[in-house]
Automatic annotation (TrEMBL):
InterPro entries: CTDL_fold, Sulfatase_Mod_Factor_Kinase, SUMF_dom, SUMF_sf. Residues 10-213 form the Sulfatase-modifying factor enzyme-like domain. It comes from Agromyces luteolus. One of its GO terms (molecular function) is formylglycine-generating oxidase activity. This is SUMF1/EgtB/PvdO family nonheme iron enzyme.
Length: 248
């Protein structure tokens, strides 16, 4: 049942963030929060959303960002918590004061993944992450490699993990971030700082998610994210360069 979603408490702290395209670096001060010890598994997805679970202990993959959001709300409702999200069609609003399950912000994810480390990996990659070097052809059962110092398994490798944040609102419109690298990726992609993303309805066999919890006394801003910053980053007066995604 959803009580099987095991969470680790992450104390507050500072994480350094980096946007390679915009050549920006900044620091985010985080309040304490909780995050899943493991990625959400096929079994957990099946219990709440009626998905099939052919490999119960493998990370749930082929899950779109929107589906992950709906899982978070379903888990909150099951546990009697205030859902973190409301929907207007496919537009999602995060109520940052809610105590329900949610996706981590990008800053939360990176801070929890690094667990105090400042290098690309929190340990020898072959010991902590399933990558292309292992020669596997599918995600592996969660918890099969060593955890980081926060007690989190599979933050690097195995499957990429959706976060709440937009990837780059100017270039990719509504694309959302996923982090961490997957079982088919080379070491270069399996690093704590690597950012990739996809459209909210996209689903991939190497992308899953883990949940977080924590409400904050704020509106439309928390843990390194803000709606105002999203709007500012999306604002481009000039024509979009070739290859950029047209905004709706």
């Amino acid at each position: 049942m959803t009580a099987d979603i095991e969470l680790a408490r992450i104390d507050g702290g500072t994480v350094a963030m980096h946007d390679a395209r915009r050549k920006l670096r900044w620091s985010v001060e985080l309040e304490p929060f909780e995050i899943g010890v493991y990625p959400v598994t096929q079994e957990q997805l099946a219990e709440l959303l009626g998905e099939s679970a052919t490999h119960p202990r493998r990370p749930a993959t082929g899950v779109s960002w929107l589906r992950a959001i709906r899982f978070c709300n379903a888990a909150s409702e099951w546990e009697g918590l205030d859902p973190a999200y409301t929907f207007d069609g496919e537009d999602v609003t995060w109520h940052v004061d809610a105590d329900g399950f949610r996706l981590p912000t990008e800053a939360e994810w990176e801070f929890a993944c690094r667990a105090g480390s400042t290098t690309p990996h929190y340990g020898p990659l072959d010991e902590i992450a399933w990558t292309a070097a292992d020669g596997v052809t599918a995600p592996q059962d969660v918890g099969g490699k060593l955890p980081n110092l926060n007690g989190l398994f599979d933050t690097l490798g195995n499957v990429w993990e959706w976060c709440w944040d937009l990837l780059d609102a100017a270039r990719y419109d509504e694309y959302r971030v996923f982090r961490g690298g997957g079982f088919a990726d080379d070491a270069w992609s399996v690093r704590a700082s690597v950012r990739r993303g996809g459209a909210p309805r996209m689903h991939h066999e190497d992308v899953g998610f883990r949940v977080a919890r924590g409400g904050f006394e704020a509106t439309d801003a928390a843990q390194g994210w803000s709606a105002a910053a999203d709007l500012e980053r999306a604002a481009i007066d000039a024509p979009l360069p070739p290859g950029w995604t047209p905004r709706r």
